[in-house]
Specification:
Blueprint (H helix, E strand, L loop, with lengths): L1 E5 L3 H12 L3 E5 L3 H8 L10 H10 L3 E4 L5 H4 L2 E4 L16 H10 L7 E5 L7 H12 L5 E5 L9 H6 L4 E4 L3 H10 L10 E4 L1 H32 L3 H9 L20 H14 L5 H24 L8 E5 L14 H11 L3 E5 L4 H5 L5 E3 L3 H5 L4 E4 L4 H4 L3 H7 L4 E4 L6 H6 L3 E3 L10
Parallel strand pairs: 1-2, 1-4, 2-3, 4-5, 5-6, 7-8, 9-10, 9-12, 10-11, 12-13, 13-14
Helix pairs in contact: 1-3, 5-6, 9-10, 9-11, 9-12, 11-12, 12-13
Length: 440
C-alpha cells in the first residue's frame, strides 16, 4: 500500500520506517527542511536502538522516502498518518497542544484525491478526530475520506520491537471501508496473531490515555510503598516481588525510583485529568498520581541532601544518568532535570554523565559540568547519585568510583546495587525504599 506519514519526530519516524519494513511504500513528510535533508543523508535525529538500521535498509530498497512536499505523496496515498507532536500546552492547564495536528490536516486537505483514510497516530484528546474531519471537509468539500484513530504504544528504547511485535493494535473507525483499509496496513501482523482491537474513534482516543495513566499509577503506587518501607524498615523490592507475582497485578512498572518522566506519562496524565474535568468526572486517582510523582522528585532531592550531611551548598555531586529511562536520549520531564536544577539552586556543583542524553540535557541545564565517563564525573565529588539505570552503570568498577570520590557516599535512586555489598566496600549507601547503610 502507499502510505504517507506527516511528521518525522519519534512516532512518525519509527512508524514510517516500520511500515516500510512491512513492505509498504512510505513517504515521510516534514516541514523542517534541514531535518529532511539530514534524514536523506542517513542521519537519525533521535537515539532509538535499531532505528538507523531499519531506516537505511528501507531507503536503499526504495520503500522509504523523506520529503518536505505534500505532492505527489498525499494524492497517491491510500492512508495518511498524522504523527506530529502534541506537547503539553504552554498554558500549563493540562490541555494537549493540537496546533500541529490541525495544521497538518489543513495542509493535506487540498491534496486529497481518491478515497483516503486520514489517521491520527499522535496522542490526542477525545474529539480530535471530529475536528480533523471538520477541518478537511471545510478545506476540501469534494474530498472522499474517512478519519480514524490508531494510537501508538511505543516504549522509548524498545520502539522497533513494539511496532513489529505489538501487544495489540487499536483501530478507531466509524466506517467499514476505513476498517478494511487499516486492516490491510497491518496485515503482516496476522502471521504472529497480533490482537486487533476495533472500536469507535472516541474509544480509541481514550485507550492511549487510559493505558499510560494506569502505568503511571503503578509507578506512583510503588513509590509511596517505598516511602512507607523507609519508615518501617521494610524492603520495597521484596514488596514489589511479593505483589508482582500475582497475575492480577503483574511485576512490570513496580520499580521504586525518583518518579516517572518522558514525553508521555506526565503529559498524558495531565491531559486525561483535563478530559475528565471537562466532562464533569472526578478523577481523584489520577490527581493523586500526579501529586505523588511531583512529591517524589522533591523527596529524592531531600534524600541527596541528607546523604550530604543535610546541606548541598558548596558540595560537589556526581550524577550518573540524565534521560528519564535507559536506551533513550529523551530528557523531557526526566527526574534528573528537576533534581539537578534544585541541587544547583541550593548551591551544589553538579558533575554529570549520560551515555546518550548529554547534548539534549545541555540545552536545559546551566552551571553543570558534563563529563566523558562516570569515573570522571565522580572525581573529587562529595557523593555520587545513580539517577538512570543504564546497563553500563549496573556494573561499575565500584572501587574506582570510591577512589575518585572525596567521600564514599553513594545515592542509588534506582536500587541497582545491594546494600550489604556496598557497606562491605566502605560506602555510605542510600537507596529508595530500603534502609540506608553506613560505611563499615
Amino acid at each position: 500500500m502507499k502510505i504517507a506519514v506527516i511528521g518525522t519526530g519519534y512516532v512518525g519516524l519509527v512508524s514510517g520506517a516500520c511500515f516500510a519494513e512491512f513492505g509498504h511504500e512510505v513517504t515521510c513528510i516534514d516541514t523542517d527542511e534541514s531535518k529532511v535533508a539530514r534524514l536523506k543523508e542517513g542521519f537519525i535525529p533521535i537515539y532509538e536502538p535499531g532505528l538507523d538500521t531499519v531506516v537505511k535498509k528501507n531507503m536503499l530498497a526504495g520503500r522509504l522516502i523523506f520529503s518536505t512536499d505534500y505532492s505527489p505523496a498525499i494524492p497517491q496515498a491510500e492512508v495518511i498518518f498524522i504523527s506530529v507532536g502534541t506537547p503539553a500546552s504552554r498554558r500549563g492547564d493540562g490541555y494537549a497542544d493540537l496546533t500541529y495536528v490541525y495544521e497538518a490536516a489543513r495542509q493535506l486537505a487540498p491534496y486529497l484525491n481518491d478515497y483516503t483514510v486520514v489517521v491520527n497516530k499522535s496522542t490526542v484528546p477525545v474529539g480530535t478526530a471530529a475536528q480533523v474531519r471538520r477541518i478537511i471537509r471545510e478545506t476540501n468539500p469534494q474530498a472522499s475520506f474517512d478519519v480514524a484513530s490508531n494510537p501508538e504504544f511505543l516504549r522509548e528504547g524498545a520502539a522497533i520491537n513494539d511496532f513489529m511485535r505489538p501487544d495489540r493494535v487499536v483501530l478507531g473507525v466509524d466506517s467499514k471501508r476505513a476498517e478494511e483499509t487499516l486492516q490491510g496496513v497491518y496485515r503482516p501482523l496476522y502471521l504472529i496473531e497480533t490482537p486487533i482491537v476495533v472500536t469507535t474513534i472516541e474509544t480509541a482516543e481514550l485507550i492511549k490515555y487510559a493505558a499510560n495513566a494506569f502505568l503511571a499509577t503503578k509507578i506512583s503506587f510503588i513509590n509511596e510503598i517505598a516511602n512507607l518501607c523507609e519508615e518501617i524498615g521494610g524492603n520495597v523490592q521484596d514488596v514489589a516481588r511479593g505483589i508482582g507475582l500475582d497475575g492480577r497485578i503483574g511485576k512490570k512498572f513496580l520499580h521504586a525510583g525518583p518518579g516517572y518522566g518522558g514525553s508521555c506519562f506526565p503529559k498524558d496524565t495531565q491531559a486525561l485529568l483535563r478530559i475528565a474535568q471537562e466532562n464533569g468526572v472526578a478523577f481523584r486517582i489520577i490527581e493523586a498520581v500526579i501529586e505523588v510523582n511531583s512529591a517524589q522528585k522533591a523527596r529524592m532531592t531531600r534524600k541527596i541532601k541528607q546523604a550530604l550531611g543535610g546541606n548541598a551548598g558548596g558540595k560537589t555531586v556526581a550524577v550518573l544518568g540524565l534521560s528519564f529511562k535507559p536506551e533513550t536520549d529523551d530528557v523531557r520531564d526526566a527526574p534528573a532535570m528537576t533534581i539537578i536544577s534544585k541541587l544547583v539552586e541550593q548551591g551544589a556543583h553538579v558533575r554529570t554523565h549520560d551515555p546518550q542524553a548529554m547534548d539534549e540535557a545541555a540545552k536545559l541545564l546551566a552551571g553543570v559540568t558534563f563529563c566523558a565517563n562516570p569515573y570522571e564525573a565522580c572525581e573529587g565529588a562529595d557523593a555520587v547519585v545513580l539517577m538512570t539505570e543504564w546497563n553500563e552503570y549496573r556494573a561499575l568498577d565500584l572501587l574506582r568510583i570510591k577512589s575518585a570520590l572525596k567521600t564514599p557516599v553513594f545515592v542509588d535512586l534506582r536500587n541497582v546495587y545491594r546494600p550489604a555489598a556496598m557497606r562491605q566496600l566502605g560506602f555510605s549507601y542510600f537507596s529508595v525504599g530500603r534502609v540506608p547503610v553506613e560505611s563499615a
